[in-house]
Amino acid sequence: MTNGDARAALASAEPVVFWSDRPDAPAPAPALIGSISADLTIIGGGFTGLWAAIQALEDDQGLRVVLIESEWCGFGASSRNGGFCVASLTHGLENGISHWPNEIETLVAMGSENLDAIEDTVHRYGIKADFRRTAEVGVATEPWHLESMEEAVETHRRFGQDAALLDADQTQALLHSPTYIGGVSVRGDVALVDPARLCWGLRAAAESLGASVYERSPVQAIEPDGTGLTVHASRGNVRSRRVIVATNAYRAPIRKPSRYVIPVYDHVLMTEPLSDAQMASIGWEGREGIGDVSNQFHYYRLSEDNRILWGGYDATYHYRNGVDPSHDQSEETHGMLAEHFFETFPQLEGVQFTHRWGGPIGTTTRFTATWGTAHSGMLSWAAGYTGLGVGSSRFGARVALDLVFGESTSRTELEMVRRKPFPFPPEPFRWAGVQMTRKAIQRSDRRDGRRGPWLGLLDRFGIGFDS
Ligand SMILES: Cc1cc2nc3c(=O)[nH]c(=O)nc-3n(C[C@H](O)[C@H](O)[C@H](O)COP(=O)(O)OP(=O)(O)OC[C@H]3O[C@@H](n4cnc5c(N)ncnc54)[C@H](O)[C@@H]3O)c2cc1C
Which of 183, 237, 368, 385 could bridge 171 with an S-S bond, Cβ 3.0-4.6 Å? Predict the structure, then answer.
């Protein structure tokens, strides 16, 4: 199959997000009109904002919680992702060990508790989001990928995780691709979820607990007004003593997060549902979540109706933390993803893509969330989960609540929470630094993983760029 044929499979793909392009999307919530008051105002209705509302109200049923979203709940990364809901709070175990060797055991335990709590919430509120625990398999497609796999398995096992090293035949037995030469499987600490339905279900859960949700109400400013803060949206405002900003990769209505968090665009394709014969040709009976282990990696999974979601590889940054709907579509990246798809599964020649989209991931130089406060502690924010925020955003919201309620907890004592990541430089150095790092990552993948001087320098400072 030629690259042209692969790209032709995109011809009828709708430029919309598969997960939210479905008839069971809830009716929109009202816009905020006029002046109201609350005990806690949450800005942003993605996973972070929704989890903040739910956890606040589960702690204190009498709290008056208002959530304000500029579009609709889930509009951002939360409905556009791969749906890998992973226990890790640290963008993977290895990244956690390298940044927080002294608290990694606590972070792993908190991550497992967090994933259990997500599962429990999904069941308690009857959220139909196809939440399924499964294994995550990292596949090797180049000999240099194999070098670190044995050590990775030992590391996971040291932390009590059910990890196994797979040879080429064992990897092929899970999922048939001529490109696989080995793999690592880690079972139990990941679930796959339908992300838009999770957002919709969390919104309904928050409302059932008493939260007032307003959509199509972009927040434009936050002003101190004596003993509280007034949050100004386009057609109304809320006055409250406490505010949480949960806008992640989007421009926040406060300055501070943009020093530490930048938006990088990640792109995704979704195929049509596979026929029984096509499913038989790839195997995949365990329906694991798959990622390859290059620096530039693909992630893929099955949907409930046997489509393949195929995303990742190329993370793009737009000047001045640019976030705009025009970045959702990229001929270059979507075309490249289509080519890689058919290289991985040549037996699926003829399969068409039905949806193509992209979205902004908030990333930090350490690839994990960061938190902060403003306005004398009356406001807190959480952002920057990089590509693993589906699970860790619940923890992010929990910490933001601890901070805004002035509570000292085992979470707020974590070094990961107390210390900020290395900030990104201002423009134009930010843009130049990201482009230089992207090129160095591409070179490293072409040269058998050799890091080169620029990545070596960043590694020494414990900083980097990822999606
Ligand atoms: C393509 C893609 C694939 C991904 N795949 C995975 C994956 O498989 N697993 C994983 O763990 N993570 C993945 N992620 C990352 C994950 O989706 C995010 O980390 C997570 O959804 C972040 O949630 P959030 O609520 O913090 O941010 P968002 O979901 O982006 O929510 C922020 C919300 O704030 C709103 N907002 C912005 N400005 C304002 C304002 N001024 N006023 C009011 N509202 C405002 C936005 O409209 C948005 O709804 C992926 C992300 C993308 C883009």
Answer: 183
CB 247 less than 6 A from any atom of ligand 1: yes
72-83: per-residue pLDDT in tens? 999 999 999 999
Ligand 1 pocket, residue 328 CB under 6 Å: no
Helices (H), 125-167: 143-146, 149-158
CB 83 near ligand 1, within 6 Å? yes
> Token digits for 257?
């997060």
The residue whose CA is least distant from atom 21 of ligand 1 is 78
**Of 358, 265, 325, 269, which Cα lies nearest the Cα of 11?**
269
pLDDT score at 459: 79
Closest CA to 340 of 328, 353, 325: 353
Identify the CA nearest to 40 among candidates 23, 24, 58.
58
What pLDDT is attached to residue 175?
97
Per-residue confidence (pLDDT) for residue 236, from 0 to 100? 98
pLDDT band, very low/low/confident/very high, at 453 (cuts 50, 70, 90): confident
C-beta of 385 in contact with ligand 1 (< 6 A)? yes
* 201, 125 contact by CB (below 8 A): yes
